[in-house]
Design brief:
Elements lengths: L2 H9 L5 E6 L5 E7 L2 H7 L9 H9 L2 E6 L3 H15 L6 E2 L7 E4 L8 E4 L8 E3 L5 H14 L34 H4 L13 H15 L3 H17 L3 H21 L10 E9 L2 E10 L2 E11 L6 H15 L6 E4 L6 H12 L4 E3 L4 H26 L2 H15 L7 E10 L2 E11 L2 E2 L5 E4 L8 H13 L14 H5 L5 H7 L9 E5 L2 H13 L6 E6 L11 E4 L14 H29 L12 H11 L2 H6 L2 H5 L6 H11 L3
Parallel strand pairs: 8-11, 11-12, 13-17, 17-18
Antiparallel strand pairs: 1-2, 1-3, 4-10, 5-6, 5-7, 8-9, 9-10, 13-14, 14-15, 14-16, 18-19
Helix pairs in contact: 4-11, 7-8, 8-9, 10-11, 13-18, 14-17
C-alpha cells in the first residue's frame, strides 16, 4: 500500500457515495458504491480481509483511489451505473455492448407516427420497446407488425397531411398531399395518409393497436378489430371486413402460441435466471405481460469469473433496468441479489410504483425459473460454438499462445489429456485434438487405465502418453473412434490388432495436461523416455483458494518455478480453457459409462454358456438373481432358450440343488 492510498483511507467519510479504483496509468479499473465509504473501501486493504481472487488481483493493481460523496444510497447506485457505462472498468461485471442494443420506437412526437428500429432509448415522450439482443429479431417483429397493422414506413414529414393536432387551424390552411400512394398501400400495409385516404384519427387508432400489441395486450387488440370488422360488414364493406377478419386470425394465432407458457395473475412480470461459464454469464429474461409470455431476450455479462451469483444478479438488474423503457410490477429471480433493499428503492423510483423481487424455492414459479435457466445455458453453449467457429478470434488465440509459451509458431495441432476417476475406481483417460483452434472429434481417443491402482493422476497420465506415443507396430496409437483398450484386448486376431495400430498420427505442436506440477513432471518423464520432443504445459485451477467460486487458471511450464497467469481477457487462455473443458467432458462421459456397466454387471455374465439372450430370458422369467439361485435345474431348463446343460452350469455357479 503506497502513501497515496494510505492518506485516502484515512480521509474517507462515513457517508454514502461511490469510489473509483485506479491503476498506475490512471485508468479506472473498478467502480463501487457504498453506504459508508469509510467502511467499504477500507475493507479491501485490511490484513484479515478474505478477498476473492478477482479482488486480490484488483487490489494489487490499485495505485490511487478517488471517491464521490452523495446524499443517499439511491444516488450512489445511479452514479455507479453511469460511471460503469462510461468507463467500463476492467474489474466490474459488465453488460456486453449494452449501449448498442436495439429498441422498437413508436414515434408519438411525429405527425402520423412511424414505428422503426433505434439504437438507444431516450425519455422524450415517445414509446420504446426492448431492448432486443439482435437487429434481426427487431426487423422480424417490425415486419410482423406491419403485416398486422397498416402503418407507414416512409420518412416523409406528415405534418402537412392534416390540420395541427393542438390548437386552431391557421386561416387558409390546406393539406399538401403526395401525388399518389406507394406500393405499401396497394398491398394493404399502409392507410396512405400521404394522399388523404386516412384521417389522423384513423391512423392514430392503428398506432394505438400497435402499442397494445407490443405491450402484450392482444385480447384488447382482438376486441377492437372485431368491433371494426362488424362495422365494416354492417356498412356492406365486405372487402375491408375480410381484411380485418384475417388480421384477427393472425393475432389469435400469436395469442395461442403465447398461451403455451403463462403465469398466474394479470401483473406484468420479468423472470430472470443466470448461467455462467468461464468469465462470462448469460442473463436470460422472459417477459410476461398480463400473464402471457410476449418475448424473451438474453444478455451477456463479462468479467464474472470470481463474482458471486448475488453480485452478478445485482449488476445485471442495475445495468438492464437503468435504460429499460418498462419495469414490471414483479421481477422473479433465480438468486437473491446483493443490495436488495437499495435495488428495490431504486426500481420503485424508476417505475413510480412499488416493485417486488421474488426468489421462488418451489412451485410453478420455480419450475419457470428452471426453464429460463435452461435457455440461458443453451445460449452459452451456442456462444461457445460460435466462438470456436470465429477464425479471426481463434487465430488471435493461437498467436497469443505462441507468444506466451515461447513457441516457434502458432500451435496448429493441440492435444489435451485428462484423467477421470471417482475414489480411484473405473479410471479412464481422454485425449482430445484441436486443429487450427477447432475441435477434431474424429481423432478423440479414450483409454481405460490398466496399470495404475487407485487414484494416481500422474501415473495414469504416464500410461496414456506411453500408449499414445509409442511407435512399434501393434503398440502405437489406436486409429478407430472406439475405446483404445478394445483394440488392445483383441487377442483373437493379432494381425488385425497390428494393422489397427500401424497408423502413425502426426505429432502435436502442443500438449496440454490437465493438472499441475506433478502431472506435468510425470508427462515430461514419459516424453523424454520415448524421445518425443513436443512442447507440453500443465493447466490447473489456482491453488490455495478456499472460495466456492471459480478460481484463476495457472499454466505450468517446464523448468519454471512459478506458474504463468494469462490475463482473464486473453483469447489464448479462453482457447486453453475450452480445450481442457472438452477433454473433461469427453473423459467423464466414458467414465460414467464404465461405472454404469460395472454397477449393472451380473454374476450371470461369468457363467460359461450364458450369453446376453439367455441372461435376459432368465431375468425376465424369474425377476431377480436371488430367484434364479433358488430355482431348480428343471425350472431353469424350462426357460426359453435354456438347456439342461446350461441350467446345470447356472446352479453350479450361483445356486444349490
Amino acid at each position: 500500500m503506497n502513501d497515496k492510498i494510505r492518506s485516502v483511507l484515512n480521509s474517507l467519510p462515513h457517508k454514502p457515495g461511490i469510489y473509483l479504483m485506479k491503476d498506475a496509468q490512471g485508468q479506472i479499473i473498478y467502480v463501487g458504491k457504498a453506504v459508508s465509504l469509510h467502511q467499504r473501501v477500507r475493507s479491501y486493504f485490511q490484513e484479515s480481509a478474505d478477498l476473492s481472487p478477482k479482488n486480490r488481483s484488483m487490489v494489487a493493481r490499485v495505485d490511487d483511489i478517488e471517491y464521490v460523496v452523495v446524499e443517499n444510497e439511491i444516488e450512489a447506485l445511479v452514479l455507479e451505473s453511469n460511471y460503469i457505462k462510461q468507463y467500463r472498468p476492467k474489474y466490474n461485471v459488465l453488460l456486453r455492448d449494452d449501449k448498442n442494443y436495439p429498441y422498437i420506437k413508436v414515434a408519438l412526437s411525429e405527425d402520423f407516427p412511424r414505428v422503426y428500429r433505434v439504437r438507444n432509448y431516450q425519455r422524450d415522450g415517445n414509446r420504446y420497446f426492448g431492448p432486443y439482443t439482435s437487429s434481426a429479431a427487431v426487423d422480424a417483429t417490425l415486419d410482423l407488425l406491419n403485416k398486422l397493422f397498416p402503418f407507414r414506413t416512409c420518412r416523409y414529414d406528415g405534418s402537412a397531411w392534416a390540420p395541427p393536432r393542438n390548437g386552431p387551424t391557421p386561416p387558409g390552411w390546406k393539406p399538401k398531399y403526395l401525388s399518389r400512394p406507394c406500393t405499401q398501400y396497394y398491398i394493404h400495409r399502409c392507410l396512405a395518409p400521404c394522399v388523404g385516404y386516412a384521417t389522423r384519427e384513423d391512423y392514430d387508432a392503428i398506432i394505438a393497436q400497435v402499442i397494445l400489441f407490443l405491450e402484450g395486450k392482444h385480447e384488447e387488440v382482438v376486441k377492437q378489430l372485431e368491433a371494426r370488422m362488424h362495422e365494416a360488414a354492417e356498412a356492406l364493406n365486405f372487402e375491408e371486413a375480410a381484411r380485418l377478419r384475417d388480421r384477427i386470425r393472425a393475432v389469435e394465432h400469436i395469442l395461442e402460441k403465447q398461451r403455451i407458457i403463462n403465469t398466474e395473475g394479470q401483473e406484468d412480470q420479468d423472470v430472470i435466471a443466470l448461467a455462467s461459464a468461464e468469465d462470462e454469464t448469460c442473463a436470460q429474461v422472459f417477459f410476461f405481460r398480463a400473464g402471457k409470455l410476449i418475448g424473451r431476450e438474453y444478455f451477456i455479462l463479462q468479467g464474472t469469473r470470481d463474482s458471486s451469483p448475488g453480485e452478478i444478479m445485482s449488476s445485471f438488474l442495475q445495468q438492464f433496468y437503468e435504460s429499460a423503457p418498462h419495469i414490471p410490477a414483479e421481477i422473479v429471480l433465480e438468486v437473491e441479489p446483493d443490495d436488495r433493499d437499495m435495488l428495490l428503492a431504486w426500481l420503485k423510483s424508476r417505475r413510480g410504483k412499488a416493485v417486488s423481487l421474488s426468489i421462488p424455492r418451489r412451485g410453478d414459479k420455480r419450475s419457470l425459473i428452471e426453464l429460463v435457466k435452461q435457455n440461458a445455458q443453451e445460449v452459452l453453449e451456442q456462444q461457445r460454438i460460435k466462438w470456436l467457429s470465429d477464425s479471426q478470434k481463434t487465430q488471435l488465440a493461437l498467436e497469443e499462445l505462441q507468444a506466451a509459451l515461447n513457441l516457434a509458431a502458432p500451435p496448429y495441432r493441440i492435444e489435451c489429456y485428462d484423467v477421470s476417476n471417482i475414489q480411484g475406481s473405473s479410471a479412464v483417460g481422454a485425449m482430445i485434438v484441436f486443429e487450427a483452434g477447432r475441435p477434431k472429434p474424429a481423432e478423440y481417443r479414450r483409454f481405460r487405465i490398466k496399470s495404475v491402482e487407485g487414484a494416481n493422476d500422474p501415473a495414469s497420465h504416464q500410461e496414456i502418453l506411453r500408449r499414445r506415443f509409442r511407435r512399434e507396430p501393434g503398440t502405437g496409437a489406436p486409429s478407430s473412434a472406439k475405446e483404445a483398450d478394445e483394440a488392445e484386448n483383441s487377442i483373437e486376431n493379432a494381425a488385425a490388432q497390428a494393422a489397427a495400430f500401424s497408423h502413425d498420427w502426426p505429432l502435436p505442436d502442443l500438449i496440454v495436461i490437465d493438472g499441475g506440477k506433478a502431472q506435468l513432471n510425470a508427462a515430461l518423464q514419459v516424453l523424454e523416455e520415448l524421445h518425443v520432443e513436443v512442447p507440453v504445459i500443465g493447466l490447473a485451477k489456482e491453488e490455495g483458494s478456499h472460495s466456492r467460486l471459480p478460481t484463476a487458471e495457472e499454466i505450468y511450464l517446464p523448468g519454471s518455478a512459478e506458474p504463468l497467469r494469462l490475463p482473464r481477457t486473453s483469447q489464448g487462455l479462453y482457447l486453453l480453457q475450452r480445450i481442457r473443458d472438452e477433454a473433461h467432458r469427453f473423459g467423464i462421459t466414458y467414465h460414467r459409462k464404465l461405472r454404469s456397466q460395472r454397477t449393472f454387471k451380473s454374476q450371470l455374465d461369468e457363467i460359461p454358456g450364458i450369453g446376453p439372450r439367455r441372461k435376459q430370458a432368465l431375468l425376465k422369467h424369474f425377476g431377480s438373481l436371488q430367484a434364479i439361485s433358488q430355482a431348480s435345474i428343471e425350472e431353469l431348463a424350462a426357460v426359453e432358450g435354456m438347456t439342461r446343460a446350461a441350467a446345470e452350469k447356472v446352479k453350479e455357479y450361483i445356486g444349490k440343488s
